Automatic annotation (TrEMBL):
Top-level division of the source organism's lineage: Archaea
Classification via InterPro entries: Pectin_lyas_fold, Pectin_lyase_fold/virulence
Protein name, UniProt field: Uncharacterized protein
Amino acid sequence: MDLLTDLRMTDIEIRNENGQLVGYDKETGEEVPISFKETETDVQHVDQATVNGSLSVVPDELNNWDGGKRPLVTSKNTRVYVDPEDGDDDAAGTESDPIETIQEAFFRQPYIINHLYEIILKPGVYTSRRADQPPTISSAKPANPALILRGETGDRSDVIVESELSLAYLHGEQDVATVKDLTTDHTIIQKFGNIKIRNVHFRGAGEPLTTPNGPVGFNAHGPTETTITECTFSDNYAEGARVTEESMLKLNSLSGHPTHYGVVARSNAEIVLRGDLHQFWGKKGQWSADMGARVRRGNGKTVHNNPVLYDDFGDGSLVEVPADNRLKSSGHYLHRPDWVTNRDDVVVSGGELILPDGSSVLQGPRVTRGRYIYDFNFESIPSGNMLFRPVYYSSGEQVAIAINSNVIENWVVQGGNINTTISSSWSADTDSHRIELRRDDDGHELIFDGETIGVDSKTHHPPADKRSGLLYQLENRSGSQINIEQVWIIQDN
């Protein structure tokens, strides 16, 4: 037999003595006779104590958010319908008698979910009328579909959520909680656990949560795991998403162009790149990760842990070294990239990358704003072009530096057409040189051996439908072997 969970004693203390419940007067210590009878509540069968003496029953402090009406555990699959125009929060919550607010639907959601709890949002604009917006905190069986918050029609433009959505799950696999088929003008915040977000337009037309860089569409802080799939982020956000403190964010089939970065990871958080992300980037880059954060692909391979890539080819290899062998310089962790080459005679020898004529190497850091620095020399006087492609979307959409026997040029290639934006004559030699391109929101600055040779105002981002990738490439068409001594790719934060 169980006591009601909300019993609190004032004068009588109940003890378990050898499997028997015995009552004692708390002041005198004398035994007090008690008896039990079974009663039924509207939630479960319990045993209620009747006491020969003074006993007061006071519930635990009521939840300040839900008025104490939120049940403990599910008993069946449930659908709650919400209609911001014709609903009423005192209604039954059925399709024909919907409630009015998302918050009321969360208030009715049990804390422990062993069945499906589905919140269906009818078309309309959802505006919060409360100052306190608690997270929906729930526990669910692993691999059990638990909470689904979705727009009724499947068209995300039909449901506009103007208020913050704050969610947390105590445990359960990642598919137990899903938010989908809606538009948010605020921020979706994840406090804890595993959640999937699908087919959401992060429009940001309201007053989203603000980070140091500006408004953010999705934010997670703590031990969370989130998958964002088939979503769009508008340029009303500085950052599409930000994760910190051991959060994991998986990205799949996204689009849109925030004004700063697509996603940001800080403080031991992790970004996982999966599926088609070619139509998703920020003006400064697709992602930024520092302060112990890392970025990896879905196969587990680390892309790099920091927006600074560096290779002096001192390890004698074209492939990356393990993360624990990273270099550190000027406060940055420097990651040696994996180089992919088109020919077997591209090798590392004597601390240099040997790039024969007609060969190329590429890397995929997705850095679109920052500094690109190359230390190199020609083995003999060139007769054609050496091409450094710091920002390479496709053959017809790129930013490149061309160096040949008599000129150094910066190219912005749009629609296959080469636009020479910076040009300087020089007489080629076989000495070591450093060339640097600085690219920001105002254009480009080209620097050769420490001296600026020109600036422009071309900041080209091609249309999404022309992007086949976002790579960094070195290509030798010079007629001479090129020796690359060092490469720096420094993302602009």
